[in-house]
Amino acid sequence: MSEAATARRSRITPEREAELYRAVLDLLREVGYDALTMDAVAARTRSSKATLYRQWGGKAELVVRALRSQAPGGIADIDTGSLRGDLHAIVAREDDCTREQSVALMRALSMAVHTNDDLRQALRDLLVEPEVEEFRRIVRRAIDRGEVRPDTPALDYMVHMLVGAFATRTLIDDLPPTQEFLTSYIDAVVLPALGVPLP
């Protein structure tokens, strides 16, 4: 985050920021991204629109930071000693109810991402890239431990595989991506593709 962004966001207390983020996510669920306006957020949170723009710059950044606030925390510090253990620990960070709500929020944004450059860029900068970089650290540790060969072709597609499991579970099976489904998917698809033997 730039110094300017840090400075402008420091004027709001963490409690107030959390309250604003909850309101943004509620509105996102209710009306979707396109119909969500800064006016509506201002009214819902008894804020001035000018304050919202000063703190977040615009709707895209506000929405993505609200989404990020719901994330269960960074994954780079997860280190169970094995790639399988790390991936299972990542999946276990959220219970099934919370995960289903997160997936519903991402679905609310999925169409808007294709037509809104600001939203797509904010998602990449604030959500996707940081998480992908954390996955890379976990994979580098697995390579350093000798679990995964560095020239394994599937390494470049690991994140795609995991995101695909989330995105297609509801579409194909009409079921949420539960912890049980995701851990079995990791064991049946991701680890074999990376050449990691199961215990």
Sequence-ordered SSE layout with sheet pairings:
Elements: H1 3-9, H2 14-35, H3 38-45, H4 49-56, H5 59-69, H6 83-92, H7 96-115, H8 117-144, H9 158-173, H10 179-193
Features:
disordered N terminus; mainly alpha; elongated; 199 residues; single chain
Structural class: mainly alpha
Q: What oligomeric state is this?
A: single chain
Coarse shape = elongated
- Total beta strands: 0
Termini Cα gap? 41 Å
State the low-pLDDT regions, or none: 1-9
Report the sheet-strand fraction.
under 5%
Number of helices: 10
Biggest sheet features: none
Radius of gyration: 19 Å
Q: What number is the mean pLDDT?
A: 87
Q: Which bin fits the share of residues in helices?
A: over 70%
Secondary-structure element order, N to C: HHHHHHHHHH
Short overview:
73% of the residues lie in helices and 0% in strands.
Task: Please tell me about this protein's structure.
This protein is an all-alpha fold and 199 residues long. Helices cover 73% and strands 0% of the residues.
